[in-house]
């Protein structure tokens, strides 16, 4: 049976592994390697075309992960990096040249903006931030020197869903490369390359790992963009440790069942939050009354456990009473693991093209794999402590 005829879950169970090549082991082993030996001078002379030539350029373990990322994202090629931020930085640097102009959604992940503002600006690259809901009107912002359009859908912290199809249609017509931060979907609930995007980037630290125990970035792309991305990747000397690659491969095998449960649990908690007097607003695109729901239905097959909500304004002391009493919800950076997290946030500090004035305190929540009834009970107790 052809690979294209198989369902995504089946492909993810079998991609990136070849037991016959590794003494029958089900999983690709951990290859710790720097030096790769060649059997003869002819092989050494031909090393430029060899897939294995030096540990920094990849081992069977990291190559297996890259193959699996291609299967997950529906991509032609993939690269893996030590973190999500390193993957973002490599993409941005790949298209950076003096005088270039980038368009970046105003809802982008904070470090994406900082790289544009503090690093790219030094090299003469100008960034314009745009309203994430702009859609096809992004054409009004394009200049002759525009080289790249950066999307993130749903947006970081505020969860606006972008009209990816409309933006990519404009970009293709104008010869501009498109990139999307696809971390929210884990690559499982959305394959943006099939929707016209050129490059999909993820913090594999999140859902690909799924267990809050490794750092990883992934870049999935069309064949046309690979050489340019790999050149920057090699020049910066990036490589992923084999143990992290192994853990990421193991996480991928269960991403389907995990994401399905995050979807169910997250929606149950989101619906409950929407019914509470203390909650002014819930930002979850899978809810029918969310402004981005129609676009979410078009571009996604499910929802992850990450979303946001806004409570009535309270002082920091009251907020501490709410958060400090949690035992199931942790407070910390990142998300995408099996455990639930909740942190107060202030998206307004990252906005320049739009404003964020929700009328209360914004909170980001990641609903993990615990029983949602237990999580709801703990949130209810936390809201009671606000009083």
TrEMBL record:
Its cofactor is pyridoxal 5'-phosphate. Pfam families: Cys_Met_Meta_PP (PF01053). CDD domains: CGS_like. InterPro entries: Cys/Met-Metab_PyrdxlP-dep_enz, Cys_b_lyase_bac, Cys_met_metab_PP, PyrdxlP-dep_Trfase, PyrdxlP-dep_Trfase_major, PyrdxlP-dep_Trfase_small. Keywords: Lyase, Plasmid, Pyridoxal phosphate. Pathway: Amino-acid biosynthesis; L-methionine biosynthesis via de novo pathway; L-homocysteine from L-cystathionine: step 1/1. Belongs to the trans-sulfuration enzymes family. This is Cystathionine beta-lyase. The lineage of its organism: Bacteria, Pseudomonadati, Pseudomonadota, Alphaproteobacteria, Hyphomicrobiales. The gene is metC.
């Amino acid at each position: 049976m052809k690979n294209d005829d198989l369902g995504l879950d089946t492909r993810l169970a079998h991609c990136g592994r070849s037991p016959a090549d590794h003494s029958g082991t089900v999983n690709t082993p951990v290859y710790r390697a720097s030096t790769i030996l060649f059997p003869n001078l002819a092989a050494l002379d031909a090393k430029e075309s060899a897939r294995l030539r030096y540990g920094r350029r990849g081992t069977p373990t990291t190559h297996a992960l890259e193959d699996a990322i291609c299967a997950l994202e529906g991509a032609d090629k993939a690269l893996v990096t030590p973190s999500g931020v390193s993957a973002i930085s490599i993409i941005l640097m790949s298209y950076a040249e003096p005088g270039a102009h980038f368009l970046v959604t105003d809802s982008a992940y904070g470090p994406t903006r900082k790289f544009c503002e503090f690093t790219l600006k030094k090299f003469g690259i100008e960034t314009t931030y745009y309203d994430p809901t702009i859609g096809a009107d992004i054409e009004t912002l394009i200049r002759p020197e525009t080289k790249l359009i950066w999307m993130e859908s749903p947006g970081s912290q505020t969860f606006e869903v972008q009209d990816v199809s409309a933006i990519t249609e404009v970009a293709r017509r104008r010869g501009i490369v498109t990139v999307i931060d696809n971390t929210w979907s884990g690559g499982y609930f959305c394959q943006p390359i099939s929707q016209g995007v050129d490059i999909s980037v993820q913090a594999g630290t999140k859902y690909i790992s799924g267990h809050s125990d490794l750092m990883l970035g992934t870049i999935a792309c069309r064949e046309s963009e690979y050489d340019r991305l790999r050149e920057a990747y090699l020049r910066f000397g990036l490589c992923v440790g084999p143990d992290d690659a192994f853990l990421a491969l193991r996480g991928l095998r269960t991403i389907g069942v995990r994401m399905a449960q995050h979807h169910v649990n997250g929606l149950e908690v989101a619906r409950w939050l929407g019914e509470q007097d203390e909650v002014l607003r819930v930002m979850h695109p899978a809810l029918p009354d969310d402004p981005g729901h129609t676009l979410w239905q078009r571009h996604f097959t499910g929802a992850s456990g990450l979303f946001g909500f806004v409570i009535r304004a309270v002082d920091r002391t009251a907020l501490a009473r709410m958060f400090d009493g949690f035992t199931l919800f942790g407070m910390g950076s990142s998300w995408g693991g099996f455990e639930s997290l909740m942190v107060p946030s202030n998206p307004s500090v990252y906005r320049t093209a739009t404003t964020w004035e929700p009328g209360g305190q914004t909170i980001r929540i990641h609903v993990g794999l615990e029983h949602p009834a237990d999580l709801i009970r703990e949130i209810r107790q936390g809201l009671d402590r606000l009083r």
